[in-house]
Amino acid sequence: MSRFASNPLSSLPRRARQRGQALIYGLFVLLSGLVAMFFMFNTGQLTAEKAKLVNTADAVAYSAAVMHARALNFDAYTNRALMANEVTIAQMVSVDSWLEYSAEHATSADTAMLCTTNYPVPGGLQLLKYTPACGVLAYGATVINATENVVSPVLQVTVLATETAKVALQLAQTTMYASFLPARTRLMQEVADANYVGDGVVKVDLIPLLDNYTLFDGKPFITPNIGNDRTRFKDVELSAAYKDGFVRNRSWSDSSILPCNPVPRGKANRTGSTQLIGFDEWRAQDSATLRAEQLRFRFGIPRCRTVANYSLGTGQQSARKNGGGSDWFYSGVPNFFDVSSEVLSYSPDSPTAAKRVDPTLRFAIRLTRAKAQTMTSDGRSQIKPTGRLDVMKGAQAQDVLAAVSTSEVYFDRPVARADGKKELPSLFNPYWQAHLGDNSAATLAAAAALQGINP
Prior knowledge:
By secondary structure, the protein is α+β, with helices and mostly antiparallel strands. It contains nine helices and twelve strands. It has one domain (44-374, 386-450). The protein has helices at 14-17, 23-110, 121-124, 130-139, 141-195, 231-241, 245-248, 341-344, 441-450; strands spanning 203-204, 210-211, 222-225, 252-255, 265-277, 281-298, 301-320, 328-329, 336-339, 361-370, 400-411, 432-437. Strands 1, 2, 10, 11 and 12 form a five-stranded antiparallel beta sheet that branches. Strand 6 (281-298) and strand 7 form a beta hairpin. The two termini are 84 Å apart. This is Putative Flp pilus-assembly TadG-like N-terminal domain-containing protein.
């Protein structure tokens, strides 16, 4: 019997006897590959989640900035509309006063001034400019009086309609101001939810990390102005109204070119203007007079003396608080919204170097997404390795992912002013614009503190 009969394997070739030794090594390689695959899966999902959260935070911050800019521009547009209404009232008062004056002047021209005759008083007094005007007034007296009777009620109705529009505009400003913060909160959450439709839940912090809209250098960015705080609106209102020369000054004069002598000479003066009295009254007044002068001797001393005075016509109209009598109703300089005094203190002429720049409304918000909502293996993913394969555990602080974004609203006039001056930020011009900005160190530190991280 052969000596190899007791060991069957000894009859196999050497390669065949080594065929099963790589199995253990292959199992280790397979296990390592699975671990790497799960690690890459989780890393990819986490990266995608983070990118989406950052993009959503940017969208939320920018949406809030657009809303801030629209709120500022809305107040600017409504302030300009209020300004236009004020100018309209000033013009209506001015026209009514002028019409009343013109009607009286036309009557005087036809009677006391004898301007329909061949020997008009202004002509005899050598008033070269007033004489032809006197003739026009005298011959047009009927038309002028009829025009006053028709136009004056229309002017009053126009003022009442303007007052109604003012009330609506002020109510719109107040409503926007009162509802802005709740509306902004809803908008931000709606934008965040729109980015995660069918993909779980994302939360927008109710309290922003930075909010210059509610607090800018210690004051709200936008503030209401009532009572004596309306001075700024009054000043701008007067400036706008007085761009119409008819409202500002309706005066002229005419004097004889001859020196004072025994032959009478004349001086005609026409005055007219419209003023804003305090905060509650627009008052227009018009009048014209003619004075005849002649050289007279008194105690042997020659002196130019007034020998006759003529009132050519007067007119007046007032729109005041509560109206009454012939005065029209006027609610006064409107309450309005403007940027705060702190915002207005920023200008190139500021004594403080830090305030020689344009003010910027900054806003920073944080979004969070719970780890359980993510599509990683320890979140909502259907792939959940166990045992030794479960080597990927999220390290999110307080089990949430967080992203921070900052937006800015700034004032920028699109076209340079014709006078070359710099346009300062205010709520009288709708030039507020929005963009995303960089997160400041303070903002990031505040966000880290909310997650219990010590930077």
